[in-house]
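Hi W., the fructose -6-phosphate complex you wanted:
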Amino acid sequence: MKFIKFKNEKDASLFVANELIASIKTNPSIKLGLATGSTPIPLYQDIANDYAKNKTDWSHVSIFNLDEYIGLSENHEQSYKVFMYNHLFSKLNVNLKNTHFPEHGINYDELIKKNGGIDIQILGIGTNGHIGFNEPGSTLDSLTRVVDLTPETIQVNANKFFNGDITNVPKTALSMGIASILKAKKIYLLAFGKSKQYAISELKKAKAFNINFPASALALHPDVTIIYDEEAESDL
Ligand code: F6R
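Structure:
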């Protein structure tokens, strides 16, 4: 794992946006794995700004999102489909037919494989070390499946996206597994702010897979870059 520390999330996000844009220019039909949550919002804003200015062509890019809540209607404002549409897809010339989310009845891992696999995967990280919604206890060989969210994740997401009301947060989701994520050719994990200090310090120590800290699986991948900011650094 390579670690790159930035002064703040703004600089970090712009760096990753520029990496993605350069990759699309080299490979216009690139397959991207994308995340939701608060972390990638500035990244998506930078990508949207680039499109407004430079018209980078997204029409052949395929996108595979990491996860989706179970139980929210497709047009619910907190569904990840709506999140991605609002923050990114509506701002680019992406072909919505090339955008994908885990769904019941679809073998998502097969679909990704049939499309040639994910070239670049963007990840956030939970305060408990989850990637996608692979909570502690997720196994290294896990593929896309239904997962239970931990009380900690439900509370964090309630505070960020559901006005603090845990009763409105779905308790289950469909998520790519740890094995699914490790199949990506290149991975960027983004972590910003004080709440991610524990996650960054655990990632720095990770040498092997630890089932209690799912992101440790990234230690087994040959091309992972951890992008974090000064606030996420700690002396833990
Ligand atoms: C989102 C996802 C999650 C988030 C994580 C961090 O698609 O898979 O793993 O990346 O929960 O969330 P934020 O960015 O809100 O801190």
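The longest helix spans residues 9-26.

W.
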